Protein 1
Amino acid sequence: MNTMQLINLLRFANLFTILSLAIVIVLLTIVLILKIDKIKKLQTMVDKLRKSLEEMDEQAKLIVRTDIELNKAQEELDKKITGLYALQRLSRIISTTLEESQIFKVIESTSFEDLGFEKAWVLLWDDKENKFIPQLNIGYLHDEIETIKPQVNSDKDIYLDLIKTGKTFSSISAPHNTAWREKINHIFKVNSFVVSPILPKEGSKGFFFVGTENMDVAITEGDEELITILSNQIGQALENARLFEKTWHAQQELEKKVEERTRELTFALDEVKKINKRKTDFISSVSHELRTPLTSIKGYAAILIEEKLGHLPPAAKERLEKINRHSDELVHMVNDLLDIARIESGRAIMKMEEQDLKTIISNVADLISIQCKNKNIELIASIQKDIPPVLADRVQLERVFINLLGNAVKFTPENGKITIKAHSQDNVIQVDISDTGIGIPPDSLSMIFEEFYRVDNPINQQVKGTGLGLSLVKHIIEAHKGKIWAESKQGKGSTFSFTLPVE
Ligand code: ADP
């Protein structure tokens, strides 16, 4: 190989090398370009990843924040529920306590700290002492109590003004008054507090203070509400207790008065009984004393009328007959008086036997029929068919009918009507004697059964009477354990009713 060939060969080799290098460079460039593109893509992906990581981080932070808040809310809720339970427990106890001092004792004895505060005071204003008197303190030592008391009283006007507002305030609701808030914190040795007025309608007012030393406890609006409710309940309980005490005292007073009056009345009743007995004894002895001379007067008058001692001029005989008539009336009256006195004193003996009312009524009707005929009065008897026998003294029962029917005839004008009704009901027999007579004025109705009482009417002015008949009838009926009463309409008639127990 010659030089030329060698040179050519070298040239060719150089060219080849250059070419190869160029190809390699091109290839490397292409690879580089592809790599750069990939790196760019990767970079974008990394950016995206970082962004989403950042987003995830944000979200994680949010979740943690929400979780903390949720926990806080849960804690708050738990506190509220515990507080509400404690409030419910306290409310139930104090609302059933009717003694003022007991109200505070029961608050002290319950688990008060469940309300979320470990310290409490109730101070009531005493008008007489002109200062606040503590009724309750929880969570304080004796020495602390003694230092707090004068401090509160040296600011009494401020507390009185606060009570007057009727509003609850606390560490959060009194922020405008920082100095005052700090003063309360200092006096009561707390970090947060609620103060609520106690406003019963009756008696002294005051305020309820609750507080806590715990820096972590934050007073909420819920706490304010809770303490407001509780102080309202305390106010209500105080009001109830005071009203109860008032009522109790009034009742005691009343009972004392009733006792006194009963004693006085018993004494008066004893006196009346004594006087009544004296009266009965007097009437009884006077009647007895009268009966002997009356019997002789009647005896002598009879001897003279019968002219056993010689002939009498007609004028003298007429006078003697008058004496005899008047004596009869007097004997009748004395007998009635003696009977009343005997029944009143329980000395009268009633011969209680089964009596057939129909027979008694028909016997008396026979007796009275002549008087009825004379005045053309219709006498009707309407007696229940199967009326049971009545347990009574026949003579006395007849006297009752004679007196009542006699009065009915006496006070009924001509052509009138008298009705006798009798029926039994619930082991009692009731008899009603009605007439169509002059009637009895309403204000006299309650007095006609009294001894010697007579209504001032034209018939009584003409016809004589003693005013003893109805009194005797009442005594007889009551001695039979019955009742008697009268109903009347003036000018229309009267009804006398009495009851007697069936055997
Ligand atoms: P006396 O008939 O003797 O006056 P009583 O004691 O029987 O006494 O009656 C008292 C009074 O009651 C009578 O005076 C009369 O005014 C009144 N009274 C009694 N029964 C009747 C009657 N049926 N109708 C009207 N008044 C009567």
Protein 2
Amino acid sequence: MRCENCPLTDCAVVPGYGDDPADIVIVGEAPGNTEVKEGRPFVGPAGRLLDRLLEEAGLSGYRIYKTNSILCRPWPHRAPKPGEVKACNPRLMEEIRSKNPRIIIGMGAISLRALTGKNGITKHRGLVYEGEPPIICTYHPAAVLRGREDWYHDILQDLRMARDLLEGKKPDTSFDWEIVTARYQLPDLENAVVAVDVESNSQGCLLCVGVGHTDPETGRPKVYITRWPADQTVVGWLEATLTNNTVVAHNIKFDAQVLWAHGISCGIDEDTMLMHYGLVNKVGRNGLKDMAATYLYVGDYDAEGAKHIGRLEELDFETVAHYNAQDVAYTLLLYRQMV
Ligand code: URA
């Protein structure tokens, strides 16, 4: 096979293989030695581990098609180069489209780039890239075989997320929110669980405070955002609400200290970051965005905001308030999952 624009020529080619049509298309990196010998993708040690993971995640009963970011085996053995992945991309897209899958799963950093254009598998694994169909990328099983045994459970978790999506078990993450300016817009809350989150600008000045609770009528989080500086009646409500209820936040000592610095008492009752750390006993991925992506399947909800991190004043207030509301709502939903 000779492909136009591809720097790889005269290499062994291993085509994709599997069910057609497929529920799941799995995209790897490039064929290895065993794959070349047998003429099928994922039949070597990494492929066998992948099959075990698929079985354990409850996916082996689905119609599965496996292929690679590039079909040629680079020789001597090395990772595919960006130009090679790019040259093979139209073939990959067409191959995926022809299998009409309900979900695409990318294994490893190369497939992440081929499927989403993003770099950094540690950052992007386990995020649902919404689309038709959605894409989830995870670590490559070969990495587990090369010493990252701790990634086995991460891959499993990401595959289980794919299964939940296929089974329509995406958690309900809808919530209601509004920007408030006066006390009469706010509910009386006592002995409830309330989540709090603050947003500040590059000078550390408070921009807004978000407080949310579970709306007894809808069962969904309801979040109230107060722009700072706030009306005195609203400040009074914040004081009362953050002392007469169980207060939960993600890394609560940060939010509580900002509030204290602005003269508002705030209880420090529950911290979703510490709870998660206690549950999984693992460093990393304890951030709110990561946890929301992992347990609520909301994807990279903060991708735009992250570009302005520490400089939120660059965004219009509605956008900042919406991020604030998402942080509060997801903190509350994560807390409800963990208790
Ligand atoms: N690794 C891959 O990425 N693809 C294969 O087909 C086999 C191993």
